[in-house]
Amino acid sequence: MTGKKVILESGIEVNPLYTKKDINESEAHENMPGEYPFTRGIHKEMYRKRPFTIRQYAGFASPEETNKRFKFLIANGQTGLNVAFDLPTQCGLDSDNPKALGEVGRVGMSVDTLDDFEIAFDGIDLDKITVSLTINGSAIVLMAMYFALAEKRGYDINTLRGTAQNDILKEFIGRGTWIFPVNTSVKLVVDTVEYCAQHVPKYSPVSICGYHIRESGANPIQEMAYAFSIAKAYTDDTLKRGIDIDEFASRLSFNFDIYGNFFEQIAKFRGGRRLWAKIIRDDYHAKNDRSSWMRMIAGGGGGGLTKEQPENNIIRSAYYALISALSGTQTMALCSYDEAYTIPTEKAAELSLRTMQIMIHEMGICDTVDPLGGSYYVEALTDQFEKEIKEEMKTVDNMGGIVEAVATGKIQEKVSHQAYERETGIQS
Question: Residue 331: how many CA atoms within 13 Å on its side-chain side?
Answer without folding.
Answer: 24
